[in-house]
Amino acid sequence: MPSKRSWVRDPLLAPIIMSVRNKFYEVQERWNNLHWHSLRFFRKEADAEEYVSVYESRGHRYKTKIVEHEFSNIKDFKSG
After folding, report:
1. Are 64 and 52 in contact (CB under 8 A)?
2. Contact 26, 67 (CB under 8 A)
3. Residues 8-51: pLDDT tens digits?
4. Which of 21, 22, 59, 71 is most solvent-facing, going by the fewest CB within 10 Å?
5. Is there a contact between 64 and 56 (Cβ–Cβ < 8 Å)?
6. Would you kindly state where each structural domain of the chain is located, as residue ranges?
């Protein structure tokens, strides 16, 4: 089995691995119909889901959701 470093150097797998590293998850709670308030940010979706279950078990009455985000690079915004 190749090492992790060789996977990153593989031109076909590098974009997949980099996209996984660039994702992060935000846990939000709904304060009213129009406003969602940020609670926490996590690198792993499983951690965000566990936080939601702990948060809801403590008797909080607001609805929660997990939003997936992705970090941007300056290359994404430069033209040409």
Report:
1. yes
2. yes
3. 455 554 554 455 568 999 999 999 888 999 999 999 999 999 99
4. 59
5. yes
6. 20-73
